[in-house]
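Many introductory courses stop at the sequence. We go one step further.
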Amino acid sequence: MKIAFFGTGDYARPALRALKAGGFAPDLVITKPDAPRGRGRKIYPQEIRLEAEELKLPFVQPEDLHAPEFLEELRKQKFDVGIVINYGVILKPELIDLPDQGLINAHASLLPAYRGAAPIEHAIKNGEAKTGVSIMRIVEQLDAGDVMLKKETKIGDTENAGELRDRMAELSGEALVEAMKLLKAGKAKFEKQDHKKASRAPKIEKPDGVIDWKAPAIEIDRLVRAMTPKPGAQTRLGAKRFIVIQGETEQDLYGIGITGHIMSAGEEGIRVCTGKELYRIIRIKPDNGRNMSAGEFVRGHPIPPDARFT
C-alpha cells in the first residue's frame, strides 16, 4: 500500500515508529514548517521531521497544506491511504478525498465520546474509569467519521494528563498498525457513530485550570491531574499565583474549615479545606518558579495561621 502520513507534534512520533516497525512505513511524511519557540523565538525543527530523519523516511513541510500546487503533487503520487495524527489543521474535502481509500485518524477517545482537541484532559476531569483510541475515517465534521476499530485502556487513579497522553500515543501506534493490516487484507469494516451519544472535548485554555476550593476534594484532584503538565491547575495565596502539580484526597475528620483554608503544612503535604473532605498538596510550583515538594515549599514560604488559597 502507498501511504501518506500527516503529523506534527511529539504525540505522533510513536505512531510513525510503529508503522515502520509493523511493515507500513509511509512513502511520504507531511509535517508543518519548522517554527519559532520560547522567549528567544529560535527556530526549532518539527518533531515529526526529526522522527522522519531518524527513520530515513522522505518528508515535506508545505507552507500551505491545501495549496493547489501541493495537492497536485500529492495527487500524482497516487496514495492508497492517508494517516493523520496530531497535524493541527482542519482538513478540507480536496485533501480528505485525495487518497483512494481516504484519510484515517487515531483519535484519543472511545468515539462518539469526547470529540474535539482535548479528549484526554476532559476524560480525566470528568472521572472516567477508561478511555481509548478510535481509528476512524476523516470527514468534514469534527471527529464524526465512521469507526474501524477501538482499543481501550484504563485511566489510573493517580494518572495525570501527561502520563496518559504518553500511553495513548503508544496505543495509537498499535491501533494504526492493526488498522493497516485490515485495510491491506480488504477486511476493514467501518461502523457509523451514534451521533446522539456524542460529547465534546474542546481545547483546554488557561482559565479552565483555576481551582475552585468550594468543589469536593475528588473533583479538585481530577482537575489537577487533567491540567498537568499544562496549562496547570492554578490557585492564589495572597497576591501570588501557584500551580498545583500533584496531590491527593484525605478524609476530613472535623469538617469545620473554611474552603481554601490551609489546615496544616509540612513535609507530608499542605492540607487544604475543600467543599468536601481535604485535599493534600504534594507538589506545587510558584508562578515562574520550579516544581517542588510541599516540604520545600513550606521551608521557603512561611504560611501564617489564617492562610487561605483563593
